[in-house]
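DM between two lab members

TW: hey, do you still have the ATP-dependent Zn protease entry open?
JB: yeah, one sec
JB: this one, 258 aa:
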Amino acid sequence: MTATININTTATPAAAEPGNAADAILRRLATRAMGLTGADIERIVREARLKARRGKRTITYEDIEEGIRGNRPPVPYNLRWRWAFHEAGHAVVHHALDLGPVRGLNIDTGQGGYNLVGFHLWATETRDWYENMLTMLMAGRAAEQLMLKRVSSGSGGSDDSDLARATRIGFDLERTLGFATEYPLLYRPHRDPGAVLDREPELAARVHARLEAALDRAATILRRRRPTFHALAKALFDAQAMDEKAVLHILTDGDLPP
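TW: and the structure you got?
JB:
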């Protein structure tokens, strides 16, 4: 279901600055809403409209944001820092390797952090691209290890987790993509990589070695870009949700070669 929202702000109306104010507000709302379902958003908008109607005024950005924030429990201080480091790590490495734009970061979901990133199509499907992807996926774990000296289970635990996606890429590099350490020309797909890795310890060792190399590489990038990494993590901890413009401002301020 699509809802049309008219938003007023205390600043100059969007009509006086075509696109600028409205686009900025919508980007901020979209970033703040990362992790919500369509049903969640529909309910929040409905409740915000009702609140505005009762106040005999137009719905505002603050009404929507308050509805989103009220939908989520507060994140404990230490956990908020862990999520900020984790997501900042992904973003810094993604940018350093020029994989594509970082559209937004969010640690305000109550269920872990979210990052929304894009990818340059011209760079995909090469061996370097897959290795860069592995490095980016392992960067959250590398960030936790670098800053907190121990890692959480946040990188794993589900089929769409960082470790699951990285393991699948490592498996495909060794089995289906033509970049295997042994027999690179053989195409050997399987619907259940976990089962194959369990019964083929040598293959498991090769895949794991790829993940270890990616983890080390991510840590090296974060150490080289430590000021940028720290600045982004601090900004994300404070704001809890950052759109593309806010993230890019910090990332480009400390640009270095990867």
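TW: got it. Strands lie at 102-106, 114-117, 241-243. Residues 14-70 form one domain.
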